[in-house]
Amino acid sequence: MLAEALTVAGLLTLGGVVILPRAVVCVGAGAVLGWPGILPSLLGSGLGATLGFLLARFVFGGVARRFVARRPKVALVLMALESEGWRVLGPLRLASPVPGPAINFACGISRMGYAEYLGTTLVCVVPQTVLFIQLGRTGSQAFASRSPWSLDGLVLAAGLVLTALALWRLGVAAKRQSARLLAEVEARRPALP
């Protein structure tokens, strides 16, 4: 069990810097470890988010700022992160098509404080982690029973449908909130002479 837990934590730490589907790792942790998979999943997610943030802030900040300077829409997102902080980061962490490493790097080059960043990140990944662990756990039990019509199989199917609906709804809400915040930031941006 220790080797599996360390593997989960390691993969999620790496996933804070390179694109690695967090959902897949957490579902796998649920299938292999069950509920105890929550701890290494949260630990790895926190370490990965910290690593991405610190690399952006102290190692790759200059390169990232030059990249942002050439892309006005990306600059608006950065301005929104700086002016709204957790209000923008929270929806991005809950349900976003933006990969985690991109969010980590954007926050790292912003003026957002580390405590606000990490606190928001950890709070907003808990619901996803619990959900993904449960899906993996239930799926593992359903496959072990070898009957798709078992209670575990039906719970898994219902969980997958409800997860898809919840993620879709969260994505719609996050996009709406992000668009509103970006519009507010754009309205406050000084006009160029």
TrEMBL record:
Protein name: TVP38/TMEM64 family membrane protein
Keyword terms: Cell membrane, Membrane, Transmembrane, Transmembrane helix
One Gene Ontology cellular component annotation held by this UniProt entry: plasma membrane
Subcellular location: Cell membrane
Transmembrane annotation, as ranges: 38-60, 114-133, 153-172
Database matches in InterPro entries: TMEM64, VTT_dom
Membrane topology listed for this record: Multi-pass membrane protein
Family: Belongs to the TVP38/TMEM64 family.
Limits of the VTT domain: 20-137
Pfam families: VTT_dom
UniProt source species: Lichenibacterium ramalinae
